[in-house]
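Bug #2210: token dump truncated for YagK/YfjJ C-terminal domain-containing protein?
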Amino acid sequence: MSIRINESALLIKLENTTKYWIELETAPESFFQDFAALLYDFKKIYHRSYRYFGYIKAWSDWLENYDIAGLTSNELIGYLQSKSFKEYRQYFIGYKSVHLKDLRQHKENEKRNKKSLNEKVTEAIQRYSKSEVVRVDLSYLKERHEHVNLEDFCDDMEQLRKEIGKRKEPFDDLVDYAWALEQGETKGYHCHLLLIFNGHKKQSGWGIAKQVGTLWKGITGGLGMYFNCHDPEQLDQYTKLNILGIGRIHRDNTEEVSRFLNAVTYLVRPEKEEQHLRIKPFFRMRTYQ
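Reproduced locally. Full output below:
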């Protein structure tokens, strides 16, 4: 039986390991063993049609140029030892400009998304005198991350989008929505979902978020989990910090609207560098809806 790979965790490990290696002057004691193990694991999830982010492109390019198929672990280690740590370090340093360029592009994209999102939600919040704003975070059970790759995540999000498009409960009386797709070191692939409802028809943010979370669990075949941002303790924290921007929002209450807009910008903050997706299954996949 083949061993499953936690794709999200492996990609972040590749990125962090590369950053670590290029800062060293001498080889770590287990460098060649670690290099071989990471290459083996990456080969299991590697797709030529994917676009890889920053330092991870160094690993994808390496697999494109060197065929390790059929090599045992010891054979691969021996093969890698034909070059020095210094040579490999220089190879990875060569991708530093690629990594920085991709980070700059990510920040620029998030800035554009922020402007677009603000325009979108401002229009939505003005539709009715009062709106019910719902936030729910969708992710996967940590112990099941190895069962979920990016394509699975995208398929699940596409199914959720279709359910939203039906405008049936819990999405009846929905005015507009937005989401941000992200990847975290411990959280794996996840989504921040924002829903704006006609506040004259919808009133319970907690209940709606719970329904959406239950739907997500069904879509993911039980692999999914969710965080209800309308949990009373969470709302109490937001209130104490004077940042409560979800729940009931009145369009003529400038303070409520301001807090709402501030809360919305969390979805596309340019400084959230560590949360970006490290791969895309096709170039035009949207990480922001």
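Output looks complete on our side. The radius of gyration is 22 Å. Marking as cannot-reproduce; reopen if the truncation happens again.
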